[in-house]
Every structure is written in structure tokens, then in C-alpha cells.
Design a protein that fits this description.
globular
Length: about 200
């Protein structure tokens, strides 16, 4: 039976399942429209449950897997510290209270959805969410310096991804398959080469 990877030394961890549940509940309740920004701030900057490099690696995996990114991430982090029970608890924290709030808001929104004031407010929220996601991306850039792929190539891959999605409107699945799969294979081969060179006497 394979062991779960241990957290890096110097990185904190949740003490109990209850702490894990409330951490993800609080995270979910803050994540209106821009969950990635909140996840990075809460789990990396405040709680230190992940290093910045771990967050980027886990977030990349969460994006490739089917389903909502932050839900995938919650399962991964919960499992890392408490096994399958931690995964379920983190998932419960992520979904329970937001589900209740969404059901309540859906009932209230049904009667006012056609009002121009409400539609304008939603457009304003989307602009704020876009700004939060952009700011989080900029905060994660320093971690690329430690990437096994050289920094100029990381910038080139980021630029290609932006052009493909924002300008050329390439479907996300193809961007992930071609650019994501290619860069993942490239990083794997680089790591293998480094391990072989380090193992030589």
C-alpha cells in the first residue's frame, strides 16, 4: 500500500478534522466569484498548510481533473493530512454552507433577476472576480523560478496558453491536452534527467 506524501518541513498542518472542516467552510464562504484567490491567501499565506510551490502543483492537478477545481483541491488536501476521511471532511466543509446559501439566494433571486439594478450588480461582481484571479496569478509567478522548466520557457507557455484561450478561443480541453500534457511530459523528462545525473558517482 503506497504512503501519502508527507508535508514539507516548515509547512503547518491542520490539527483535527474539525479544524479542516471549518477552514474549508470559511474558505468557501469567502469565495464568491474568485475562489482561487481566497484559496491561495488562506491555505498558503495565512494557515501555511501548503508552500507556494505545493499550491501551484496541486492546483495544476486540480485543474486537469474533471470537476470543479477547488473541490478537487479540497479532496487532495484533506487526503494528504487525514486520508480518505480528511478528503470527505474537506469536501463537506467546501459544499455544505455554500449549498444552503445558494438555495436560499436562488429563491430570492427568482423574483428580481430581470431588474436592471440586479443585472448591473452581477456585472460589477464579475469584474471584481476577474481582478482577484489576475492578482492571484501574479502572486504565484515567483514560484516559477524554482520550476524544473527554465523560467523563459514558463513565460512562453503562459503566453501561449493566454493567446490560445483569450484570443483564439481554443476549447480548454485541447489547451490542457496539448500545452498542459506537453509541458507535463517535458517536466517529467527533465526531472528524470536530473535524478539520473545526481545518482551518478
Amino acid at each position: 500500500m503506497s504512503r501519502r506524501p508527507e508535508p514539507d518541513r516548515g509547512v503547518a498542518r491542520p490539527d483535527t478534522l474539525m479544524a479542516l472542516f471549518w477552514a474549508f467552510t470559511w474558505l468557501a464562504l469567502q469565495g464568491f466569484g474568485g475562489v482561487v484567490a481566497v484559496v491561495q491567501r488562506e491555505l498558503v499565506d495565512k494557515k501555511c498548510w501548503l508552500s507556494r510551490e505545493q499550491f501551484i502543483e496541486d492546483w495544476a492537478v486540480a485543474q486537469v481533473l474533471p470537476g470543479p477545481n477547488v473541490v478537487n483541491l479540497s479532496l487532495m488536501i484533506g487526503d494528504r493530512y487525514f486520508g480518505w476521511r480528511g478528503g470527505l471532511v474537506a469536501l463537506a466543509g467546501m459544499l455544505t454552507f455554500p449549498l444552503l446559501i445558494v438555495l436560499l439566494l436562488a429563491g430570492l433571486f427568482a423574483g428580481v433577476s430581470d431588474m436592471p439594478q440586479v443585472q448591473g450588480a452581477l456585472r460589477g461582481m464579475s469584474a471584481v472576480a476577474a481582478g482577484m484571479i489576475t492578482a492571484t496569478g501574479l502572486k504565484m509567478l515567483p514560484a516559477l523560478k524554482k520550476n524544473v522548466i527554465a523560467l523563459p520557457w514558463c513565460w512562453a507557455l503562459a503566453a501561449l496558453t493566454f493567446v490560445a484561450i483569450a484570443w483564439l478561443r481554443v476549447p480548454l480541453i485541447w489547451v490542457l491536452a496539448v500545452l498542459g500534457g506537453g509541458s507535463g511530459l517535458w517536466a517529467y523528462r527533465r526531472l528524470s534527467a536530473l535524478q539520473q545525473s545526481e545518482s551518478k558517482p
